[in-house]
Write a sequence for this structure.
């Protein structure tokens, strides 16, 4: 196992990294399409369409494609996004679950005094509830959603903001994610990055984005960022 020295801060993606949230997202997206009389969407489709935030997910659902139809009616897109937000909120995220090893691993980093942050493209309004629901809110010193700043991943804006806020050199921060957006953002911020194989990456292997380290299981992070025993 490759060990990275000198990590003082860890930033985590949320969906597909800490949380298997596709069942709830797919349900809300499918209800939205039904109300609008559009073609329904499946869990399998939504799994390959998430990662760029809710607006693009809904655009892909309306387009039935990873590539959003450039001729999509903006008013329809707005209505669909409002419906999606409502259904996603009303569902209470009851079908989302933490991946194996997530809670124990976060607790170990927290115990070791390593500050952590969430950097997700999910709309910020949904994030605190999800963290609280799964008992991991207290582990994060910063929670950044997809609309917290003007730019979201793969732009490095949020990671650079964290580096600046916490007075860190880029070599002292690790980004952990499951999507090429996470890898690209980390590389643009000159941070180390771990890519997880089990998440949502548009149907592509995460290794194709060339993260510094590829892991199959979240708990292996304690080997990458060695904790003092």
């Amino acid at each position: 196992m490759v060990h990275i020295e000198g990590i003082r801060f860890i930033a985590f993606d949320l969906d597909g990294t800490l949380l298997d949230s596709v069942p709830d997202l797919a349900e809300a997206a499918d209800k939205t399409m039904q109300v609008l009389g559009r073609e329904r969407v499946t869990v399998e489709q939504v799994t390959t369409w998430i990662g760029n935030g809710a607006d693009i997910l809904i655009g892909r659902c309306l387009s039935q494609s990873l590539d959003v139809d450039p001729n999509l009616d903006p008013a329809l897109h707005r209505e669909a996004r409002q419906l999606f937000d409502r259904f996603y909120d009303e569902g209470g995220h009851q079908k989302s679950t933490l991946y194996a090893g997530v809670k124990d691993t976060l607790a170990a980093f927290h115990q070791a005094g390593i500050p952590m942050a969430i950097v997700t493209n999910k709309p910020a309004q949904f994030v605190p509830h999800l963290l609280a629901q799964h008992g991991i809110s207290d582990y994060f010193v910063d929670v950044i959603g997809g609309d917290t700043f003007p730019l979201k991943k793969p732009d490095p804006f949020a990671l650079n903001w964290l580096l600046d806020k916490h007075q860190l050199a880029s070599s002292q921060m690790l980004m952990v994610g499951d999507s090429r957006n996470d890898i690209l953002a980390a590389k643009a911020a000159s941070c180390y990055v771990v890519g997880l194989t089990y998440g949502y990456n548009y149907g592509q292997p995460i290794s194709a984005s060339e993260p510094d380290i590829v892991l199959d299981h979240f708990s292996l992070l304690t080997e990458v960022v060695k904790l003092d025993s």
Q: What stands out?
A: Strands lie at 9-12, 19-20, 97-98, 116-119, 140-144, 173-177, 192-196, 213-215. The chain has a mean pLDDT of 96. The chain has two domains: 9-21+96-224, 22-90.
